[in-house]
Amino acid sequence: MNGDNGNPAQTPGEFFIPDLCATRPVLLMFILSELLVVVYVLGGSRLPAFDWDTLALASLFVQWIMLLCAGLLCASRPLLARLSLPVGVMLSFLIILLVTALSSLVAAFFLADSAFGPLDGWWLLRNLLVAAVFGGIALRYFYLQQQLRAREQAELTARIESLRSRIRPHFLFNTMNSIASLISTRPEQAERAVEDLSELFRASLVENDDGGTLADELRLCRLYLGIEQLRLGDRMRVDWSVDEQAEACALPSLLLQPLVENAVYHGVARLPEGGTIGIRAHCDEQQVQVEISNPVPGTQPVGGNGHQIALDNIRQRLQVIYRGGASLEVYPGDSEHRVVLRVPMAEEAMA
User: Fold this and answer.
1) Element (H, E) at 242
2) 98-116 as b/e, with b when 16 or more CB fall inside 10 Å?
3) What string of DSSP letters covers 289-347?
4) pLDDT per position in the chain (351 positions), as tens?
5) Which CATH number is associated with domain 167-349?
6) How do strand 275-283 and strand 287-295 relate by DSSP bridges?
7) How far is the C-alpha of 162 from the C-alpha of 255, rounded, in Å?
8) Angle between helices 52-81 and 85-110 (to 10 degrees)
9) Pairing mode, strands 275-283 and 236-242
């Protein structure tokens, strides 16, 4: 169970502005821009004498700005994606304002006597204000869409990874062998093991519901540890220290069980003499903290992939759900390995 404390770097494909060189987003922006023009013209025209000239000129002006903005944002997207989110948003916003200002100056030169009326500084300022409002709305919409897609992808990946971890051959075969050995001698315990295994499979297949609690997560951990206890026996010991108040804290599903599984598989199971897994949870007014510790084998490989996938997945889910308000930190050591999960205490902190 090794890992690092850093968060995965954002890739260009994860940038919140979509590919504006594609047909669908450009078509959507074209339709919305034209609807804005129609509303503008309707607001200044009488229906019996609809101003078609103003509609044509305004459509040309607005669509020109929209297409220029889309083209420049598309061309600069790889560069913007390498920047931090605030800087990327600010530069995108400045591109929209700059295109609007330059287009307005060109229009003021060529369309001075048009139906637009006086093309002076106030007209330029009005265009910039309109571009600022609708540009901000568009950027906010793109950001929320990207966050929604990232959250859906994270939840889907979590379900798939959780299912894979439940049906690992070594875990499933060992459990089945343990149940088979208990059927003749301790049938009631064998039946309970089958029920626990079924419950774990069911939890990995249900839709992710962010309305669960720490108590629900700890119950899944106890089910998993109970199954592993059949195989490891006295080699595995669990030290529970859970604050009752912390159990009521809201927690996304399937966060703790992969961490406990790592503690068993990469810690206790690799030690001939076994060891103790520590599970501690407490809370204060701002956050709930869960710490999972396990002994470290002397031949522990550094940077194994199995647990790192689970850690990266959990970090991604925390980032999407809590927007930076939660953390997952790993503290490797020579004799003990610790993982500390911190999430906001208030339920409204969750997205």
Assistant:
1) strand 236-242
2) ebbbebbeebbeeeeeeeb
3) EEEEEEE--TTPPTT-HHHHHHHHHHHHHHHHHHTTS-EEEEE--SSEEEEEEEEESSG
4) 444 444 444 444 467 788 888 888 888 888 888 888 888 788 777 777 777 877 888 888 888 888 899 889 888 888 888 888 888 889 999 999 999 998 888 877 776 655 555 566 777 888 889 889 888 888 888 888 888 877 777 776 666 565 555 555 556 666 777 778 778 777 887 887 788 777 776 766 665 555 578 898 898 888 888 888 887 888 999 999 998 888 888 888 778 888 998 898 888 988 988 899 999 998 887 888 999 999 988 765 444 444 566 787 788 778 777 877 889 999 988 889 999 999 987 644 444
5) 3.30.565.10
6) antiparallel
7) 10
8) 150
9) parallel
Q: Where are the domains of the chain?
A: 12-150, 167-349
- Please state, as a whole number, how many other Cβ atoms lie within 10 Å of the Cβ of residue 91: 14
Quote the pTM value: 0.55
R_g of the chain, CA atoms, integer Å: 29
Q: DSSP 3-state assignment of 282?
A: strand
